[in-house]
Write a structure and sequence with these properties.
It contains 4 helices and no strands. With 71 residues, the protein is mainly alpha-helical. Helix 1 packs across helix 4. The two termini are 21 Å apart.
Amino acid sequence: SDEQRALVPYLNNITTTAFSARRKTIRNSLSKFFTEQELNSFGLDPVLRAENISVEKYVELATALKLRDKI
């Protein structure tokens, strides 16, 4: 759908950022997008690493970014 296609740049940006900082927690790697409290609000433990987050959670995060257009 068009809505899904519109999400792709956000999903790409967030996953690239999350995985580019090897061995960093998402608290650190995603700090330019989300505060620790925001990560908690998504049900994510800020000390997780990028590889420990589900695709569905990345889609949730990308959707939140798209909604506030913070790219």
